[in-house]
Design goal:
Elements lengths: L7 E4 L4 H6 L6 H4 L3 H6 L4 E6 L2 H9 L3 H11 L4 E6 L12 H13 L4 E4 L10 H10 L2 E7 L8 H13 L4 E5 L7 H14 L4 E4 L7 H10 L4 E4 L13 H8 L10 H17 L12 H6 L3 H13 L6 H14 L9 H14 L9 H7 L12 H8 L17 H8 L8 H7 L1 H10 L23
Parallel strand pairs: 1-2, 1-8, 2-3, 3-4, 4-5, 5-6, 6-7, 7-8
Helix pairs in contact: 6-7, 8-9, 9-10, 14-16, 15-16, 19-20, 20-21
Cobalt (II) ion binds next to loops.
């Protein structure tokens, strides 16, 4: 008879859930009052940083993302803190130099992150190499992600092979990252088994309820041997967010997959976020139901709504069906990239251009030329050579790791922020978001006095030694 094995829960309300439902607008002060209760709930981890939260803190909330991390850490004593990192893109939108990538991981772990979850949009593991190596050097938990997608080249064998390579890179666990909610229960069970046959690492499943499949997918994945699932406390669950934590805990209680979490302990967490939800009501999607088009066209929800918006702006919503049919054509020519930031935007824009101009590849945006030049990494399958020729002519694409082409950036950033730096982390903020940082960093002076985070006082606007 099988030993009862404990299933673990990662709570996403502090990151993905509000990124998915209210455009990443939850402020730190909406989080702080409930943190001690969350720490007692028995979660495996709290996902609370990275992804879009970093940018959103400064751009929309006038908050220092590093302060958020330290404030949360100071109140969470027992539960692991997890962040999402976009490989060499860190928490920004381009590839950064290795010195920046290493320094970022060092500071993130140094300020309190326990688990670093890393993915690359193309599943090109060279793009996660540097950050993964640094996570190991810092002694934190390295979780590497499979960006899940459907295509002729994304076979069980290919994913299992990828998991094997991740184990060789020192991964402490593997996440199946299903950003679109396309992973079906049947496929999830097969995938978990295929990976478990190759590696003995814990597997975490991350999905979204967009298509209505996620709760079933989690159950099937857990039965097949997965160890951890990502859920969101009910007021911030479902729709484009994760399945509800309370339901998952209740569903598994008393069986071999019991989470060990006491439902009663989730009540104060739920009560708190009900109030927070009320506050951000205006940002919530009008309908949180299932989007059946995501299943039909196998594209992420965000990409679908972007396409609709782009076409509306062009007064061409009647072309939606044509554009949706063009998406697989473009994706195939580009070597089947998973549809996640930034490839989802690229594929969607090119499909729209192909339809609206009435001629395929007549207009090609700069990002897509860079893609064909190899600057995003290696696509999962070879690109269409004819399309590449149209895009970049006879130019040879680079075949090295893209970051090998980027000169060190940290020294220059440190010089740039010297006048209004309060902490060494500011140089990183500057590299990733120079435009936002230019306003944000100086604005902190005059309002920052002694902080309650134990990092000393800025003296007369002098920079800390950086
Ligand atoms: Co997600």
């Amino acid at each position: 008879m099988g030993e009862a094995r404990r299933v673990r829960i990662t709570e996403t309300v502090l990151r993905d859930a509000h990124q998915s439902l209210i455009a990443t607008r939850m402020s730190t002060k909406d989080m702080l009052p409930v943190l001690e209760r969350m720490d007692e709930a028995g979660y495996w981890a709290l996902e609370m940083w990275g992804g879009a939260t970093f940018d959103s803190c400064m751009r929309f909330l006038d908050e220092d993302p590093w302060d958020r991390l330290r404030l949360i850490r100071s109140r969470i004593k027992r539960t692991k803190l997890q962040m999402l990192l976009r490989g060499q893109n860190l928490v920004g939108y381009r590839h950064y130099a290795d010195d920046v990538a290493r320094e970022f991981v060092k500071r993130a772990v140094g300020n309190g992150i326990d688990i670093v979850r890393i993915f690359d949009a193309l599943n090109d593991l060279r793009n996660v190499e540097t950050t993964a190596d640094q996570v190991k050097k810092e002694g934190a938990h390295l979780q590497l992600c499979i960006s899940y997608t459907l295509s002729p080249v994304h076979t069980l064998e290919a994913f299992a092979e990828m998991a094997q390579r991740m184990a060789e890179m020192g991964a402490d666990s593997i996440a199946i990252k299903d950003m679109a909610g396309l992973l079906s229960p049947v496929d999830c069970a097969k995938l978990v088994r295929a990976i478990k046959e190759r590696v003995s690492l814990p597997i975490e499943i991350h999905s979204h309820s967009t298509t209505g499949l996620a709760s079933m997918t989690y159950y099937a994945g857990l039965e097949a041997g997965a160890d951890i699932v990502d859920t969101a406390i009910s007021p911030f669950s479902l729709g484009t967010s994760q399945p509800p934590t309370e339901s998952m805990v209740a569903a598994l209680a008393g069986g071999e997959l019991d989470t060990g979490i006491d439902l009663e302990k989730l009540l104060p967490v739920c009560e708190h976020f009900k109030k927070v939800r009320e506050k951000y009501k205006a940002l919530l999607p009008a309908v949180a139901g299932v989007n059946i088009n995501i299943l039909r066209y196998q594209i992420p929800g965000g990409m679908y709504s972007n396409l609709v918006n782009q076409l509306k702006e062009q007064n061409a919503l009647d072309k939606l069906e044509d554009v949706l049919k063009e998406v697989p054509v473009v994706r195939k020519a580009m070597g089947y990239p998973p549809l996640v930031t930034p490839s989802s935007q690229m594929v969607g824009t090119q499909a729209t251009l192909n339809v609206l101009t009435g001629q395929r590849w007549k207009v090609i945006p700069k990002e897509i030329r860079l893609y064909f030049q190899g600057y995003y990494g290696q696509p999962p399958a070879p690109v269409d050579p004819e399309v590449r020729k149209i895009a970049i002519g006879d130019e040879e694409p680079i075949t090295c790791r893209p970051a090998d082409k980027i000169a060190p950036e940290l020294a220059e950033a440190r010089r740039a922020v010297r006048a209004w730096s309060l902490q060494p982390e500011d140089a990183l903020t500057w590299v990733m978001f120079p435009a936002v940082a230019k306003d944000f960093l100086p604005r902190r002076f005059g309002r920052v006095t002694k902080r309650d985070i134990g990092f000393g006082d800025p003296v007369d606007g002098m920079a800390y030694p950086v």
